[in-house]
Here is the input.
Amino acid sequence: MISARSLLRCLAVVAGFCLPLPALGSGLSDFPVELDAGAGQIVHLDCAAPSSPGSLDGAFRFLELRDTGRWAPSAFIGIRDDARAGKFRVFITQAERGGTVVAGYDYVLDGRLVLREMLVRGIPRAAAVKITLTWTDSGKFSVSILGKPPKTVDTELRGTVLFAAASSAKVKFAFSTGSFL
Here is the structure.
């Protein structure tokens, strides 16, 4: 769980500037944020350390797509390590230029892609994609997208930072976190 005190320390890093973000309350609407990345660019939002085990309920949606042909418009929510070399993230990305969106997850360790799986295809480009992500202190992640049965993945990741990112798109995110009792 990310405490309200910790979230007061959340920062968005946009074009070299740090912008303070609002504290997270009990619902998704309490933490809406838009990230806006130009074509071929990526913008990150890093938050304080999540508890482990923990969970995240959220949704993200494309507001604008900036497809250059090289970088597909994409959005990510996940957990990463301090060095950014390891991460587990849920993503949406435009499947093909002008087409629908696919959603899935990937796992990166030591800067190398270990696993990527598409879980849902054919999502309309303007649809809100709802997710549930859970994690344990032993590196087990479980992800459910659009209410589909959860997919569980064992990793070596001991994530320390909750993050969101947008690439070649303007994306609206809304999420809340919690911990298991």
